[in-house]
Specification:
Layout: H1 2-13, E1 17-18, E2 24-28, E3 31-35, E4 41-46, E5 58-63, E6 72-76, H2 81-84, E7 91-98, E8 101-111, E9 117-121, H3 126-135, E10 136-143, E11 146-152, H4 156-166, E12 189-190, E13 194-195, E14 204-206, H5 211-214, H6 217-225, E15 237-242, E16 245-254, E17 259-267, E18 283-285, E19 288-289, E20 294-300, E21 308-315, E22 320-328, E23 341-344, E24 346-347
Parallel strand pairs: 1-12, 13-24
Antiparallel strand pairs: 2-3, 3-4, 4-5, 5-6, 6-9, 7-8, 7-10, 8-9, 10-11, 14-15, 15-16, 16-17, 17-18, 19-20, 20-21, 21-22, 22-23
Length: about 350
Amino acid sequence: MKILLSAALLSLAAPAVAQPAPPASASFRDWSVVCDNVDQCTAIGYAPGLDIAEVSPFLWLKRDDGPDARPDILIGLGWTEEAEAIAAGAAAQLRVAGARGAQAFTGKVDEDDMGVRIVRLAPADEKRFLAALKDGDRIAITAGGKALGQVSLAGSSAALRWMDDRQGRVGTVTALVATGPKPASAVATTAWPTVRLVNPVGPEAETALPPALLARKQVQTCIEDQGDPDGEFARPKAMRMAGKEYLWTIPCGRGAYNFTSYFVIAGKDGSGARSPGLGEDDMVINADIGDDGILGVFAKGRGIGDCGQAERWAWDGRRFRLVERFEMNDCRGLPPSLWPRTWVAKLE
């Protein structure tokens, strides 16, 4: 009896594990929120009254799944010359105003890896700042003695409540908005899908296309679409992946900042051509494959790179499997390091 009781208690104490779910997103007035397949969620609020292609200050909040995850908060100053003129390390003031008055917060100006100025709150202020968001209607931002605009809080409470619900935090002490008496242990951790990674056999090298590949309709279309009479862009590459199979990379078009390539698996002589599993047509943008079998893709929505899609794919010995995807549909001044993640898998 004692042994059975101990086993039952251990079972109750074990942390809850949820299964991956399809990515989801929602918009609430000036705010949007995106959650990936393992319930990492990112909420972003912008300045009021702007369209999806106008750069503005923004509030960015990301939180992982699980009972112990804390929200990561920062305020972006916008990808503008005025913001870039603020020196890293400068003091910043944030004033959260609403019907019940205003609260002041301080932070320090930092920069991400592309030079975009961001403000991080003092850690001791984060809890009070989150509480202020519930009753506020805007955040006024000042840094380096300059007023740098506002972030609207219209929709913020609904967005964070939606995040609480997605992460299973509603009614728990861990919720951002929908708080309740349930303990943190009531929040589940989401299991990650796994992807096997197999290193290619050989390095990538430029080579001429064999007749069997030149005869393929998709390859002929790519050659016609290259628009490169001098042939500087039209340099196919091949990488031996497994056995006698090669990954062929065929340039297929270029613009001001996006370069499209067609990928196909085939023998050295072009025989046995098949899909490498990169989507409906195996066309990818700004692709680069490493010797470790990881294929990176970065499709820019516009030249400054503040919107678009970034992916990482892993070769599993037979085909490519998606490891990570980040998407930013609004061109509002967020660098790729802050784009919401919509898919992730663990390499093994």
